[in-house]
Amino acid sequence: MRDVSTIPLPPAPGATEHISLALADSAVMLPGGRHEDELDSPAAATTWLVDRGLAPEDTELLEYCQNQLADLRHQLRALFAAQVDGTPPERSVLEHVNRTLTRVPSAPLLHHDANRGLYRAPGHPVTQLVEHSMAQIVEDAAALLTGEDASSLARCGAPPCDRFLLRTHARRHWCSTRCGDRVRAARAYERRRSVVHER
Prior knowledge:
Number of helices: 6
Largest sheet: 2 strands, antiparallel
Shape: elongated
Structural class: alpha+beta
Order of helices and strands: HEEHHHEEHEEH
Distance between the termini: 55 Å
Strand order of the largest sheet: 1-2
Strand content: 5-15%
């Protein structure tokens, strides 16, 4: 898997092993009000899928498929946020995730045209490819949220970063060294400031 991420941070812990975390983290808020989105165009969404082995090199997603992938990211972020916050996920989120799991067709459809008569063929091949990829991503999310790593899921504690991660140890609450350095620098600044105010 090559990683040509446009996000100027390394993958968050767990995102290399869990494709669902990688999708959830494919958009991020950065300091200075910057927002990076790896799915911001059909070409970018295609690259994201191809780079993760979820689509062949010659794939060309349409805007409809890009929007479906971005919508799945939104649903996964809501699902992960509920897990991190210890709240039940919204019913509509669970329904969307379950629809994604079961949408992948298992048989070619029956078609008819004047020249060929009845024949069987898959539906739109790119749409099916994206639906299959999304089902794989959701399968990974379901395994993560019901497995032993579920309690390690966390949100980056370095605002404005909003990526998710798997904590590698209890004290780690940020997705990258860069975010951790920002947290430590802010704490050091607050300590110096409080010492100055006490004088």
